[in-house]
Structures are given as C-alpha cells and as structure tokens.
Amino acid sequence: MMLLNTIKENKVQIYSLTVFWSIGILLSLILFPSTPRYLSSLLGLLIATLFFLRLKKYNTIFFIKALIRKLGLAPIVGFLIYASWCFIVLIYIKEASSGVGYLDHIIQEFGEPSEFIKSYASSAIDSLVFFVLVGLVLTVRSIKQPEDERLSRKVEHIFPTVQTESILSKHLIDKVSELACINETTERIVSICDYSESDGFVKISIKSHSVIKNIHNNCSFSHPNMPWGFSVEESKPNTEILGEIHEISIISKLTGNSKEKHLLSGIAQLTADENSYNTTHSIDIPAEKEVLYQTNVWAWEHINKKWTFNSSRYTESRRFSLFNHTEIDFQVDVELSNGETSQIVLEAKKKDGITPKEIIHKELLPDDSISFRLSKVTGSAKGSVNREEASSDENTQTEDEKYV
C-alpha cells in the first residue's frame, strides 16, 4: 500500500523518467552500434537519468505537467507502448541482444528473423526517432514558461490541490491579482487653511496623488467595484457646508497622450444631514502599466481629531507635505503603526511664503498606517512648546482608502 501511494504521489516524475529512459536507450542503440547492446542500453539509462535529474533542478516538473496537460496522457502512453514494441523487435533481430546469452537462446526458439522483419524494424526505428524529435521540438516551442502562463494557470501551479473553476480558485485569482498591484508613489498635500478660535475647528484640505502600478507581466488588473469614501465626524456650529469633494479621477497613459477619467460630476458637498460621501467605480490597469489616482477634499473638523491614513497595498514611497496657511502656530503629533512617535511644529504663515514640512517613508506594507493630531501652540519659544490640550479623545479616520 505504501508503494502504491508513493507511485500515485509521484506519477508525473515516474512517467517523465520512463520517457527519458526510453529515449536514452533508443539513441544509445543508434549512436553506438558497435558497442554490445546491453552496455549501450545501460549507458542510455545512465545518461537519461542524469539528464532528468539535472533538468528537474530547473522546474522541469512544471514542464512535464504542462506537456501532459497539452498532449494528454493517452499519446504519452501510446508512445511508451510503441517504443517498447520497437525495442522487442530489435531484440528479435539481435540488434539489442547481441552478446546476451539467455536472450540468444530464447530467440533461437522463434527462428531466424526474415528480411521483412529486419526491414520493418529499421523503418519503425526511423519513424520513432523522427516523430520523437519533431514532436518534442514542436511541443517545447508551444509550451509556455510558468511566468508566461495566464493568471489562472499560475494559481493552479502554486495551489495544485485547488480545483479549476471552483469558488476557491476564483477567490485566489482575485487575491493574487490585488497583491500584484502596488503604489509606486503616494503623495498627500495636507493644508491647514483656516482656524476658528471660537469653537476649535480647523479647515483641512487634502490632495492625494497615487501612482498605482500593475506588476503582472501578462495579466491586467481589473476591479469593477473599487470603493472610496470621505466623511465629517463632527459638525461645526453654525456652519452649513462642512466639507467638499472636488476631485476623484484616474489618469491612464501617464506618458504621451494621457487619458483622464473623472469619477465625480461637479462638487459633492457635506452637510450636517449628509455628512459622508461614498462611491464605487471601476479601475483597469494593463500588465506592467500604471495609472495616477487623484482626490481633492476639504473639511471642517475639530482640532482634536486624529487623522489616520493607510493603504491596503504595498507602497514603495509615501510622502506627506504639511502646510500651514493660518496666522497660528500648530504642533502635529505623528504616530506610526509600529508605535513610533514624533512632533512637528508648523509655523504661522509668513510674508515670504510657506515652507512645508515633509514626512517620507519607504517600502510600506499594507498595515503600515500614519496618524496626525493637531494642537495649537500657545508658547512663543519653539524649543519648549506649550500647547492647548484637547478636552476629548476621538479616534477617527479620514478617507476610506482601501484601494488607494
């Protein structure tokens, strides 16, 4: 039973090794006619085995599986039967048994082979060698390398136990497709546009630019329902318009004639009655291509709000540029998802312009988030800053950027 299980688990390797052996024996008999046939056969077996082990190191198993999938098992079994028959005929005409005493004794009982049998054997061997060589060349040229296969084939290779066209297979294809889309660069311009002293609200503007690249070599990325959302958590007193969404767009063909797709008609306004905006849209990125995803929003939020930015895909480079357009100094408490914290002081606007503060991170995983919390600086000395502490401790999040 253990032997049968071993054969069943390694049937592809056994089939392929048998084919290599058959070809090795036939070629050795043809290339070394003066050598005793049993030595030629042993030499062919040895060379075929070494060649098989050598190729196995370079993903030959995938090639063998692709060969069986393309040709089917029946032609390969037929070839083995025909090759075995040719080998028996060679033994009968003493081309593969010369010098082997017990075989000579057995053959004598059948009598001497006729000229017709000898002619048939020669023709059969010629045909076998010709079709093997031509068939292998054509098959090798027609079989794709693993990296050139369709995504479904790649998933089958990675997860061989998953049934084709099953729900799990489709789920794995979707997940692998999403993983192969990365953010090359993500840049956000965060500006403090205004501050209301009476109620402690700040007007924040956020412009986002993300270059999303599909790193598949031959598979396009397509998502029919890509979500995006933005909301205002707390209403500013005596204010009708709490925020606005000015832009949601995707620009493809970044070089040459660009193609821009606007996903927002006009301006979406947020009020106390409708304090959130949520939408879905489709995105298509060809293989090894990239698109620019842009958003532009502003909102009134309480100064104690905690702004959290994250992305669900790998990001090569993330840059935040922080601007202060007000006449007040602010301190920004920065907290990363790994627990690291830092403080940045945004000085009040000056006559000679505004100098932004930049935060740059490289090679970020999907769960690597960054949070900001503002506080008003009350002291004049920047070395020992005093700041007004917020009375409440809300933990809210900005735009839902699951795919950005």
How would you name the oligomeric state of the polypeptide chains in this document?
single chain
| Bulk shape | rod-shaped
Rg estimate, integer Å: 36 Å
- The percent of residues in helical segments reads 25-40%
Judged by helices, strands and strand pairing, the structural class is alpha+beta
Poorly predicted parts: 96-103, 380-404
Characterize the structure shown.
The chain is α+β, with helices and mostly antiparallel strands. It contains nine helices and 14 strands. Strand 4 (243-252) and strand 5 form a beta hairpin. Helix 2 packs parallel to helix 5 and helix 5 runs antiparallel to helix 7. The longest helix has 28 residues, at 115-142. It is rod-shaped, with a radius of gyration of 36 Å. 21% of the residues are buried. Mean pLDDT is 76; it is low at 96-103 and 380-404.
Write the layout of secondary structure elements.
Layout: H1 2-9, H2 11-31, H3 37-56, H4 60-71, H5 73-92, H6 101-108, H7 115-142, H8 151-158, H9 167-179, E1 181-196, E2 201-214, E3 221-231, E4 243-252, E5 259-262, E6 268-270, E7 276-285, E8 290-302, E9 306-309, E10 315-324, E11 330-336, E12 341-346, E13 357-364, E14 370-376
Parallel strand pairs: 1-10
Antiparallel strand pairs: 1-2, 2-8, 3-7, 4-5, 4-6, 4-8, 9-14, 10-13, 11-12, 11-14
Helix pairs in contact: 2-3, 2-5, 5-7, 8-9
